[in-house]
From TrEMBL:
It comes from the Bacteria. This is AAA family ATPase. In the C-terminal section; belongs to the peptidase M41 family. Residues 49-193 form the AAA+ ATPase domain. Its cofactor is Zn(2+). Keywords: ATP-binding, Hydrolase, Membrane, Metal-binding, Metalloprotease, Nucleotide-binding, Protease, Transmembrane, Transmembrane helix, Zinc. The keyword Membrane applies. The keyword Lipid metabolism does not apply.
Amino acid sequence: SQERKRKKVGSSDLTFNEIGGQDSAKQELIEALDFMVRHEEIKKFGIRPIKGILLTGPPGTGKTLMAKAAAQYTNAVFVAASGSEFVEMYVGVGASRIRDLFKEARTRAAKEKKDNAVIFIDEIDVIGGKREGGQQREYDQTLNQLLTEMDGIFTSETPRILLIAATNRKEMLDSALLRPGRFDRHIQVDLPDKKGRRHILELHAKNKPLSSEVSLDKVAEESYGFSGAQLESVMNEAAIYAMRDGSGEISQRHLSMAIDKVMMGEKTDRQSTE
Ligand code: ATP
């Protein structure tokens, strides 16, 4: 658990340059961050501050990377959790974990003398799902605690807490989370287009021996519909093929085989859950 914690907490050094494609999502996020750090002016103009940013879109498109880059960009400490971590058998445990998460962000920012703290909650839909007729009482408490913490974020106070959440299922979210003053900035992080796929492939090819005959354009074309996470797998699998057959570098054929493998892997995954 200590090990897991260490991975999830820290000052992020990932920059927006290491995220492929997603040009408009990156731009929207940077605009929101630039706005948020101008708290003096925001106050002067009586503008309602942004407290939460919601990243929506399919799995593996780089939402976590975006949150990390946001922390780097605002020179903030980065504290992350996943919605599923708050689901517990005992009533109140989820709520107290939410409290701890915010406390941890404040303590760490103070310790590291940082003015900002980014709290990232992945799979927010797990705790922030629609509250319907008496069910899911435990979740209710957790969600209520999150709403309370959000209402308690004063942007003029340090550390300034910047809450970023991610979901693949925005339509499932309770409307209380989406109200003004809560997660009222939504940024769509979609599957990359061909240019985006090429960019992502380039980033993941950086530390790999690529044969000069390789056309990443062609790989981008053949990997239509792939997410960033799948493209990362393609590069990795291709490198494994190249290493295995002793060819010394990654060829176009290795990449085509890797695309097939990743595609097949997805298919078998899907079949086994059906
Ligand atoms: P999930 O919804 O499953 O949590 P996510 O959208 O948060 O997914 P990430 O965790 O950010 O996705 O991405 C997983 C991995 O896939 C990254 O660590 C990275 O290796 C790769 N990846 C995904 N998107 C991109 C991208 N746009 N640029 C570069 N790498 C990417």
